[in-house]
Design brief:
heterotetramer; A: 350 residues; alpha+beta; Butyryl-Coa Dehydrogenase, subunit A, domain 1; Butyryl-CoA Dehydrogenase, subunit A, domain 2; Butyryl-CoA Dehydrogenase, subunit A, domain 3; four-stranded mixed beta sheet; four-stranded antiparallel beta sheet; 11 helices; B: 395 residues; 3 domains
Chain lengths: 350, 395, 350, 395
């Protein structure tokens, strides 16, 4: 049994942390997160150069990672900086493309010269593949995709669409998008498919899409753990400095115990994320990823609420970095299925 | 035991409903429903409409231009205005300074200031909190030093809500630096046009501008602007804090938001069926509804007691804590109900055709974050727990 | 609007409180609660003389109450003393009998000379009338009833049983019982019906039984509120006296805040019980009673756990009265459908 | 990163399983499964069986008759014995006094006392808490006054678990009344046959007898019974409190109880269908299972760290809090699952034909109440939170 990162992952983790510390302080982050294209293209390429995207796929596929722990290593660091670069989109897309043997495109994506997004879910429907109505026929896509992460400024968009009753994967470079910042920063878009030219990558991609989403969910869990660690430390620091009634509020036992309960839950989140990462390639993947995303969702929302409350008004301000961590942690629960959806999966897996 | 309103009270409720139906401007109502921030004109417009029936000064006696309502009537108005998606009244003049002047002000101050609150000439804001004095308000440091017939004020106030629209501010200032914490504080009125005042916006977590910092540098204010006696301002602050506030539990907002949540959950598809049919989500709604039914009765119990005696600090603290918890839980469930669609920011700037998120729920996440303030301001829920604990464990 | 008890109810409340204070101290209570017949027959009759049972039915029916607030008035006082007398059985039974015009028996029950129990639910089935399998034919009952409150030593047992597809109400004086104390005190029994002679009181009693159970649920809510009030006061007193680290533990803020949260919830329980009482005769009865029993169940279990924890080891001892209040409050949730069952009703009523 | 046990560890697990299958007496197993209290002979029997393989002294080195296991092996044994419904070992001799003597005892004490623990001649109990010294253990008042070669002990201990079966007790006593709280305390061994000792049962909330009060009146104990130095007993107490306790999170019990709960909920009919199909109950089970999966990994993480360094107080406090919360939640759900049938008391005295409550769940309510102790004893969860807070907010 060994809970330490391998040498390679430790190096990637250190490099990435140093890069983000130097290049992505909170002011830079907030500017990037809310101004179109909602990330910094040069920084995206620099991060690709550091090997961030290569870590998402295996050596066979042209990368140097691809395991659960590679993903968690990268995303925990991204979470520590609440980095808005669209790595979630890149992760899910590059793994799909790599599995389909799109070696040339995978190489471009790993290098950062091409950036992909993945458009699956639709307005007026739940987040289930079964609810997809977008369709592909005669080389054209028709339909509407909503909340497509990383779509602003993306070079290619992978689209899940129906043809002959199956849900396949299609690639377009010409889809119209309505771009917006997300409330917690970073970009997403509505994707409008109106006889949009596309090529078919695979005719039946349901299983592959589920696997890609589970990799995305695992990434979100790790991102949350990184953000929670930092937010807890910020809160502790704040409480040691903030004076009320002639004493630092860190001495008030009622507040201390609440912070302790959060600290314990963060360790629980770290553990369940490790467990899910270890199962990313097993036949228990779906269950353990759902468990992890459920616990992360429960904890991250509660943590955010507690942290804002413990800071008082200061935790409510845009100027205070912790507020952005709290927002990100809350909104993570909205991505790729919230705690409730994951809990249903666990209940049905049992 | 009788939980019913009287016939007279029910008639009054009908009158309020009719008034709101006929007079609440549709554009303002829509903004409130959609969590779109109101602008200055919206507030002024709504105050003027309420004042057209003499309903603005809710707690004021008739002789000063108020409606002379009892607790139940104020409760009914609070509930019905919330249900109708009318704006909250801007409390600082009407519900705070007004009652303070009526109790502590000189006749001259009443005559000078009260009319301006009702007729909309003056927009008051509040200068209480400071960067180092939040929950521990009595540690405030802004100083007012006597100089002839003036005070000279130096210091900084913060969390000044809607200060950007105000022309006046009432402040707690320290007039005796030597006195113990609560004893050297005075309550003073300041014209925001006075030289030396600078107001700066504070951007909130969800991106909105509703609070401000106010900086005072050698601001000269006549001594006659003092309300009550010098160094007795804490008495006034406490009066306001424990003053019976009809609407503190916010049950009207909760009832309204629960209905909206149910409607949203009924039209939101999740896992292939309406979200409201998901037992795990339905459980959250049902538990919240039960909590709400209970606080509604608790609120009426307190109202009924305070019609005979005064409501204690214990009771308003209890209503504050439980009321904010319920509203915040509803905000959270509404945010959750949107799923991935809660993401866009700022929701109101998106093209109308951009997303199939119901217009009235598009800003749900922003509203959720903004309403975290409910358990912080006006005495955080932790401070309220301390107040109750003091009472519970006394003796 | 008026939240004060009427003069008559105030008198009953005062009389009963005085009686229980004088006659039912905790040692008396514990002895009665755990030694067969698990109550004190003389005291039962004394309480009947005070008007306790008369309060359960209307003047027309020979009593002097019968409204929701009459029930809550009595049971709140019983709860303050965690009195094990089998009043819950008497309440449900006498209301059923009164509605069926069994005037003579009602008179005996009100006077205390006859004591009834109500046997409805069965082992190996849920607590739904639909699951009843006991049957009546040719003047005989057959089946098994479980956890029949107040059955030990009862003079008559009302039995819900099937005949011709309907659930009717039958009366027997000769059923065999297996008696036991309940873990929180008071008696219950397994009732064995093996061609047991019985008379038919009504052939179709489903609606009447639901109404009787709702009256019972309301009673349990009020009992819980009474017990919670006393338990909170005991806890506050304990915390003011118990010294640790050189100070009374009442000064520790983390503990204070937990007590405050309980105190608030108790007020919420009182309010929802008042609301349910006001609806006992309305067409919204089932919904509001379910709401009340749900909130009571959620709160009473949580309160019991918190109180034991706040007392440390002392709260775990038989000798400490608070422990018995905590047990009673926990087990109240097990009677007549727990918080989860009630929540389902609320969800379906919405 | 590797979450798997090694081949050797898995082989060891199989060996433990086989041992339990072949050696755990069925009657004892049944009592444990049914939450029936074990009697003295049951414990002695089980200790002897474990000792037949030299497995009793779990943490002891081989040269003193222990198995010489590492952390993982102890973890595996803890988990497998729990899953098999084996009794908990009586910790006071094996897991507490033994390690204390190994670290602080003289060679003579080791030679005299350790064998008696393993061979079952001595049953030790613990004299730590006092009526006025629970969470605040250092405020203990029981005094030991030197008189020649003896100490004379006066005072009262409480919460002495299974003291009714013991013939020996180790105590914390105050040997220097003038010293500050923690400094005048010593660790001493006392024979319960010594004149002046009286043990009285404490009946617990659910009716059981497992703890006792012990009264000391002029009890004369030789100075040679002191372990460690006079007035340095607090060091020993702290060593035991922060000493790495493999089983502190109780994950084995939780895994076992979760499986039993699922089986119970599958055969319990509620609202016309198996309770496990009720989404609201299934939610509780699923959330608890997720929490359990997480603590299981947290536990392994801590184990893995403590194989290289020492586990901090922070970590064992965390495992204690979360572990007890999970076990208690499972107890609570099991109690809930029984519905009305949870009522009978004491469950084991009912005739076998009395109730259709599964035999193994009949005492579920009693077990629930009894296990409220888990978050109280061995340092309450509040004390554990204080320990973690001290670490978190240090500096």
């Amino acid at each position: 049994m060994d809970f330490n990162l391998s040498e390679d992952r430790r190096m990637l983790s250190d490099t990435l942390r140093r890069y983000l510390t130097e290049q992505y302080d909170i002011e830079t982050r907030n500017k990037a997160a809310y101004e179109a294209p909602f990330y910094v293209p040069e920084k995206y390429i620099e991060m690709a150069d550091l090997g961030v995207i290569g870590a998402f796929v295996t050596e066979d596929q042209g990368g140097f990672g691809g395991q659960g722990f590679d993903i968690t290593t990268v995303f925990e660091e991204l979470g520590r900086a609440i980095c808005p670069e669209p790595m979630l989109a890149s992760l899910m897309s590059v793994r799909l493309l790599a599995d389909l043997g799109q070696d040339a495109m995978v190489e471009d994506i790993i290098g950062g010269s091409k950036r992909p997004a993945l458009a699956v879910f639709e307005p007026e429907a739940g987040e289930r593949l079964a609810d997809i109505t977008a369709s592909f026929a005669n080389g054209k896509l028709t339909g509407r995709k909503s909340v497509v992460y990383g779509a602003p400024n993306a070079d290619v968009i992978l689209v899940a669409a129906r043809a002959d009753g199956k849900i396949g994967l299609y690639l377009t470079e010409t889809a119209e998008t309505i771009d917006y910042a997300m409330i917690d920063g970073g970009g997403a878009a509505e994707v409008i498919l109106d006889n949009t030219a596309a090529v078919c990558l695979a005719e039946d991609s349901e299983a592959a899409l589920e696997a890609a989403f589970d990799a995305g969910r695992l990434a979100l869990c790790a991102e949350a753990v990184g953000a929670m660690d930092v937010l807890l430390a910020m809160t502790v620091d704040f409480m040691k400095q903030r004076q009320q009634f002639g004493r630092p509020i860190a001495v008030f036992q009622a507040l201390q115990h609440r912070v302790v309960d959060m600290a314990i839950e963060i360790e629980q989140c770290r553990s369940i994320t490790v467990l899910a990462a270890s199962h990313l390639a097993s036949d228990q993947r779906a269950k353990y990823v759902a468990m992890a995303k459920n616990l992360i969702g429960r904890t991250s929302v509660k943590l955010s609420e507690e942290v804002i409350q413990l800071h008082g008004g200061i935790g409510m301000t845009w100027e205070y970095p912790g507020a952005h961590y709290a927002k990100r942690l809350t909104m993570i629960d909205h991505q790729l299925g919230d705690a409730l959806i994951q809990l249903h999966k666990v209940m049905h897996a049992a | 035991m009788d939980l019913q309103f009287t016939k007279e009270e029910e008639d009054f409720r009908d009158e309020v409903k009719a008034f709101l139906r006929d007079n609440l401007p549709k554009d303002i109502q829509r903004k409130v429903r959609n969590n779109t921030p109101l602008d200055k004109a919206d507030y002024e417009n709504w105050h003027a409409i309420m004042q057209s029936r003499n309903w603005l000064g809710m707690t004021w006696p008739v002789e000063h231009g108020g409606p002379g309502w009892n607790n139940y009537q104020r409760h009914i108005v609070g509930e019905e205005t919330a249900l109708a998606y009318a704006p909250r009244l801007v409390a600082f003049g009407v519900a705070m300074l007004g009652p303070v002047l009526l109790k502590f002000g000189t006749e001259e101050q009443k005559a000078d200031i009260l009319p301006g609150i009702l007729d909309g000439i003056d927009w008051w804001c509040q200068g209480y909190s400071e960067p180092g004095a939040g929950s521990d308000l009595a540690s405030l440091k802004t100083r007012a030093v006597r100089d002839g017939d003036d005070y000279i004020i130096n210091g900084q106030k913060t969390w000044t809500t809607l200060g950007q629209y105000a022309n006046k501010i009432f402040c707690l200032v320290r007039t005796d630096a030597a006195a113990k914490a609560q004893e050297g504080i005075s309550f003073i009125l300041v014209d925001l046009d006075t030289p030396g005042i600078e107001m700066r916006p504070i951007k909130l977590i969800e991106g909105g501008h509703e609070v401000n910092e106010v900086f005072f540098t050698d601001v000269r204010v006549p001594v006659s602007n003092l309300v009550g006696k010098e160094n007795e301002g804490w008495t006034i602050a406490k009066y306001l804090l424990t003053h019976e506030r009809t609407n503190i539990a916010g049950t009207g907002f909760a009832i309204r938001d629960l209905a909206a949540l149910k409607a949203l959950a009924a039209k939101t598809i999740r896992n292939g069926k309406p979200l409201i049919e998901d037992p795990l989500f339905a459980k959250e709604i049902a538990e919240t509804e039960i909590d709400l039914e209970a606080i509604r009765i608790t609120n009426l119990r307190v109202l009924s007691e305070s019609e005979t005696g005064a409501a204690s600090g214990y009771e308003s603290s209890m209503l504050k804590i439980k009321g904010t918890v319920i509203v915040q839980r509803l905000n959270s469930l509404t945010r959750q109900a949107l799923g991935a669609a809660a993401a866009p920011f700022p929701a109101e700037k998106l093209p109308a055709n951009a997303l199939t998120v119901p217009e009235d729920a598009a800003a749900a996440a922003a509203a959720y974050f903004n309403n975290r303030k409910l358990s912080i301001f006006g005495g955080s829920n932790e401070i309220q727990r301390n107040i109750i604990a003091k009472d519970l464990f006394r003796g």
